[in-house]
């Protein structure tokens, strides 16, 4: 497939991306969860000084610079909780660009597979598992890291202009590193792709790139890291590491079969399951390394995908599983799935084409259904409560969303449900007290409701 053909097919993809998630750019679209404290209520990002804004977290500077620029572009008024639409609009465009970068890399890796780039792009653009990264504005860090990660590998594999390709590789590497720490695996991915292509590894890029990564990691570890809102939410590192060994396979299943998607998963972890998957992963890695040492031209690309999860295994976080964090690794998985489709299309074009079209139609239908949950904070947390009924955070946030809509009776029921899960949580007690005080003044509640209903 020629590049001109790929670009010709990209416009319908852009249209489908916006049609699939049209509600994301609604003028009343609200910020969700972490977006509020990090973007809306963050005085540093709202500062006129670019350097002060970046000092909030310089290791997210690539994405945060775009947040700062968008906030500065809102003239004459303060950024409000209902201004998420303009930020999500940019996320959708960036998602489309990430699909283009994936298709371009597929074109370089598999030049003989003429159907692969388009299959990869559309499977990526329409997969509903990525709706979280697009609608959660902070998911932009994942999207931008993926764009520059894929561009860096594209430059690394470039041959026609070595000097320009080398410069592009280093620039893209740095921009990816300052989007998300998962970009630390980039030099390893580049080396593995050299093995896959049976090419001599480009030592200057690999050595200098590894040095840049090491320096970035050292600086990152020296910078304060907020692990969770509450220390009790942070699991012990061994438990977290074992959990991630099977969560990465759960993420793979979610990418290929994007069913039961949830913003706030309630996962029950067992160390025994983690140990089984850890041993399985180690055995798989050993087998792939053996294949590489024997110089067999198979299997090298598969190794890149698990590598992308290593930073998640090493850094304890409050959320063991978040769909937005699947963005980069799922891009690699989709590339591999597209390889299977391209082989099938080259043998049985009509039958395989029908199969690919059926998959895309399923993705679109699932995407439409999933996009509806992002229409408001209430709908998102209601969906999370349905899928995680024994988890405190969705229930508490659902109660907060109902309270903001002045649906006080429903909010009270949600808070009481949350209190049954965490009886000693003072935030629930405080909100219940505020509800009781508000319910004693029904005239004021009716006045506030009438103001909320005004356009």
- The count of strands amounts to 0
Give me the secondary-structure category.
mainly alpha
Mean pLDDT, to the nearest integer, reads: 85
Strand content: under 5%
Distance between the termini: 50 Å
Cα gyration radius (Å) = 23 Å
How many domains? The number is 2
* Helical amount: 55-70%
Largest sheet report: none
Order of helices and strands: HHHHHHHHHHHHHHHHHHHHHH
Description:
The protein has helices at 3-20, 35-40, 50-54, 61-73, 84-109, 116-125, 131-135, 140-157, 162-177, 186-196, 203-222, 237-256, 271-293, 300-307, 310-314, 327-347, 349-372, 377-387, 392-404, 408-421, 426-439, 442-453. With 455 residues, it is mainly alpha-helical. The chain has 2 domains: 3-374, no CATH class; 377-453, Alpha Horseshoe (Serine Threonine Protein Phosphatase 5, Tetratricopeptide repeat). The model is unreliable at 451-455 (pLDDT under 50).
List the helices and strands and how they pair.
Layout: H1 3-20, H2 35-40, H3 50-54, H4 61-73, H5 84-109, H6 116-125, H7 131-135, H8 140-157, H9 162-177, H10 186-196, H11 203-222, H12 237-256, H13 271-293, H14 300-307, H15 310-314, H16 327-347, H17 349-372, H18 377-387, H19 392-404, H20 408-421, H21 426-439, H22 442-453
Helix pairs in contact: 1-5, 1-6, 5-6, 5-8, 6-16, 8-9, 8-10, 9-11, 10-11, 10-14, 12-13, 12-16, 13-14, 14-16, 16-17, 18-19, 19-20, 20-21
């Amino acid at each position: 497939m020629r590049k001109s053909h790929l670009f010709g097919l990209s416009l319908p993809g852009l249209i489908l991306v916006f049609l699939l998630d049209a509600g994301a750019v609604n003028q009343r679209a609200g910020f969700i969860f972490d977006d509020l404290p990090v973007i809306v209520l963050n005085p540093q990002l709202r500062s006129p000084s670019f350097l002060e804004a970046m000092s909030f977290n310089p290791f997210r500077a690539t994405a945060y610079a775009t947040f700062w620029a968008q906030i500065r572009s809102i003239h004459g008024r303060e950024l409000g909780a209902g201004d998420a639409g303009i930020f999500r609009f940019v996320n959708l465009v960036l998602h489309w660009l990430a699909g283009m970068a994936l298709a371009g890399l597929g074109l370089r890796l598999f030049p003989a597979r003429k159907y692969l780039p388009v299959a990869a792009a559309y499977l990526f653009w329409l997969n509903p598992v990525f709706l979280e990264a697009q609608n959660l504005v902070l998911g932009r860090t994942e999207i931008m890291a993926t764009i520059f990660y894929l561009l860096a590998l594209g430059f690394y594999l470039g041959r026609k202009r070595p000097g320009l390709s080398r410069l592009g590789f280093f620039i893209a590497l740095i921009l990816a590193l300052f989007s998300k720490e998962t970009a630390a695996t980039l030099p390893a991915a580049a080396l593995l792709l050299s093995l896959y292509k049976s090419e001599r590894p480009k030592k200057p890029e690999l050595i200098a790139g590894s040095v840049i990564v090491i320096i970035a990691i050292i600086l990152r570890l020296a910078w304060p890291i907020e692990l969770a809102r509450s220390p009790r939410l942070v699991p012990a590192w061994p438990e977290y590491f074992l959990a991630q060994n099977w969560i990465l396979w759960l993420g793979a299943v979610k990418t290929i079969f994007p069913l039961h998607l949830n913003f706030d998963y309630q996962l029950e972890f067992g160390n025994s399951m983690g140990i089984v998957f850890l041993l399985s992963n180690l055995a798989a890695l050993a087998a792939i390394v053996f294949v590489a040492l024997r110089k067999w031209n198979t299997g090298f690309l598969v190794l890149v995908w698990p590598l992308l999860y290593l930073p998640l295994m090493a850094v304890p976080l409050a959320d063991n599983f978040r769909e937005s964090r699947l963005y980069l690794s799922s891009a690699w998985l989709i590339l591999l799935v597209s390889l299977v489709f391209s082989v099938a299309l080259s043998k049985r074009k009509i039958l395989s084409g029908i199969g690919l079209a059926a998959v895309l139609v399923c993705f679109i239908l699932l995407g439409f259904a999933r996009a509806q949950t992002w229409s408001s904070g209430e709908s998102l947390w209601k969906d999370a409560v349905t899928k995680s009924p024994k988890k405190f955070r969705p229930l508490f946030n659902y109660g907060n969303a109902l309270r903001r809509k002045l649906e006080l009776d429903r909010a009270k029921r949600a808070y009481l449900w949350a209190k049954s899960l965490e009886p000693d949580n003072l935030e629930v007690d405080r909100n219940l007290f505020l509800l009781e005080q508000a319910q004693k003044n029904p005239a004021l509640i009716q006045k506030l409701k009438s103001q909320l209903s005004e356009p």
